[in-house]
């Protein structure tokens, strides 16, 4: 279980809210009472929440971010710090954790309002190396609606589908071609060759995400020739360990519905938030 440290000297009234947040989000909240606990910091620690960063200068070499509660405090030394207000909400904290996970920029979350409906449409070029960053940018607002653990699952599913759309759709790399290239250690060369080919290099994937308090809908459409969707096998025992077809199966684990168009180059993913 991921850990969040807590060191408060003055703003002790927020402790109960932080305890509840960590319980709901499945994080282990570790109250820092002495230096011995700081010596145990490892990669399972996400951050330390504090109102007294000057007392924690000895953790600079741990490279763990500090989240400062209050408007009148700032970091000292070379520590990486983020600020949240004393009247923080759950989605404010989720946003901070999400940004730390993905190296993103902390958004300004207004504690007196939250969106009820979000829709985005983007074009994604054939940049497989940055799929995770693209999906993170597309889904940052999910912190308003879901726990971090659920957001991570949804992102995994979207990333798998987007990767398929680029590889098998736009670049027309078949499952057999990918398998052989992976076995021979030449997959990166194959990918680079396809991305530079005049036939494929200007293709892109259109992605649409629609978020409401009830459900999340993601539509992914590539510019390839599609495939025969009747050949899909959703049996986890047969496909989960296979190189080809595994991505769709993983996505099926995290979404309630997966629907392809007749051509097979457009897929709609639906996640019911009420079930999360």
From TrEMBL:
Which Pfam families does this entry report, sorted A to Z?
HATPase_c_2
Keyword Transferase carried by entry: yes
Please name the source species: Deferribacter desulfuricans (strain DSM 14783 / JCM 11476 / NBRC 101012 / SSM1)
What keywords were assigned to this record?
A: Kinase, Serine/threonine-protein kinase, Transferase
Which residue range or ranges hold the Histidine kinase/HSP90-like ATPase domain? Answer: 136-271
One annotated GO molecular function is:
protein serine/threonine kinase activity
Give the top-rank taxon of the lineage listed in the UniProt record for this protein. Answer: Bacteria
Gene3D superfamilies, alphabetically? Answer: Histidine kinase-like ATPase, C-terminal domain
Q: What is this protein called?
A: Histidine kinase/HSP90-like ATPase domain-containing protein
